[in-house]
Amino acid sequence: MLKTQELTLNLGPHHPSTHGVFRCVLNLEGEYITKAVNHIGYLHRGLEKLAESRTYTQFIPYNGRLDYVAGMLNEWGYVMAVEKLLGITEEIPERAEYIRVIVGELQRLASHAIYFASMALDVAGATAWFYGFRDRDEILDVLEMVSGQRLMHNYMRIGGVAADLPDGFEEKVRALLDKLPACIEEYEGILIGNEIFKARTIGVAPVSKEMALDYGFTGPNLRASGVDYDLRRDEPYSVYDRFKFNVPVRQGGDTYDRVLIRIEEMKESVKIIEQALKDLPDGPIMAKVPKVIKPPVGEVYSRIENAKGHLGFHIVSDGSTKPYRTRIYSPCFVNVGIFPEMAKGLHLMDAVVALASLDIVLGEIDR
């Protein structure tokens, strides 16, 4: 009679997406997972606490280190929370709000492009990786025009944005938007329709609607499991209520749907940017805010639809120039929590694909 022995294996930190700050201890029976336990390491060592020793303005650039492939969206979420604390949400100039939408959706496109590239590498090989990075690089060229940086932008400001759009920006964005639909079609052709990719993702690690809600999924992962909810439409902030766009929803909740939902969302981001450029008003880009920001005593919670889900900021003010307490609700931290449940019963090689499909960034998990 053949005897088997349970094997314990560390998934990570050797895996490219974990780079030392995450590993999952797997119990294996043969090559199938019977148990998985997450172990989260350290990367930034306390950004939330660091916020309490910086002024409200000084903490803006630190937010780019959270989800470091979606820096503009992180900054936007933070300054919105401070504006709510100051009670100036309605005073933000229209032009600044439109600019925020444009650069925010460009950042969402860049984030989804790198997700596509990473999934391609984890599943099928390196060729499709270059397609995603090709398009992300062009998007970062545009974001660099407004902020001077490709990754850590430090562009959002409490009350508006740091600088107006430079000459040639609108033309460059329109040229990019003309190219992107064809690029997204290439994604669908080289990966989404690939038989190997389908075999590796369809039916792998499905998350039901009930499980997604129980684990607190938000964003694309939630919508891939059949929950039709998007903050931009259902709890609109900034000027999102002025734009027409669809919220893609899938029903299977498997790895394939989690990839496809992001491809579909890229098409909608293109629509939003086109409308924002068309209606972009003239005017100031900053509200009249004091040079030294001292919100009244109180607390606030504010959230936005980040590329990976709901990114929330809870800030407590004691009336000084620095937050008394800052806590960040991280979609990546919430999403990785379901991985042990997803991994049960999976083949070892499928576990890597399932983890990648959650679209986690470790900088946001360890805050």
TrEMBL record:
Give TM segment ranges: none
InterPro entries to which the protein is assigned, alphabetical: NADH_Q_OxRdtase_suD, NADH_UbQ_OxRdtase_49kDa_CS, NDH1_su_D/H, NiFe-Hase_large
| Entry's localization field | Cell membrane
What does the record give as the reaction this protein catalyses?
A: a quinone + NADH + 5 H(+)(in) = a quinol + NAD(+) + 4 H(+)(out)
Keywords for the protein's UniProt record, in alphabetical order: Cell membrane, Membrane, NAD, Quinone, Translocase, Transport
Enzyme's top EC category: translocase
Task: Identify the Gene3D superfamilies for this entry.
Answer: Cytochrome-c3 Hydrogenase, chain B (1.10.645.10)
Enzyme Commission number(s) of this protein: 7.1.1.-
Membrane topology per record = Peripheral membrane protein
| Domain of life, source organism | Bacteria
Q: Where is the NADH-quinone oxidoreductase subunit D domain?
A: 122-295
PROSITE patterns for this protein = COMPLEX1_49K
What is a GO molecular function of this protein? quinone binding
Give the GO cellular component terms, alphabetically: plasma membrane
* Function of the protein: NDH-1 shuttles electrons from NADH, via FMN and iron-sulfur (Fe-S) centers, to quinones in the respiratory chain. The immediate electron acceptor for the enzyme in this species is believed to be a menaquinone. Couples the redox reaction to proton translocation (for every two electrons transferred, four hydrogen ions are translocated across the cytoplasmic membrane), and thus conserves the redox energy in a proton gradient.
State the family named in the UniProt similarity comment for this chain. Belongs to the complex I 49 kDa subunit family.
Q: How does it assemble?
A: NDH-1 is composed of 14 different subunits. Subunits NuoB, C, D, E, F, and G constitute the peripheral sector of the complex.
Q: Which PANTHER family match?
A: NADH DEHYDROGENASE [UBIQUINONE] IRON-SULFUR PROTEIN 2, MITOCHONDRIAL, NADH-UBIQUINONE OXIDOREDUCTASE 49 KDA SUBUNIT
Protein's UniProt name = NADH-quinone oxidoreductase subunit D
**What species was this sequence derived from?**
Thermincola ferriacetica
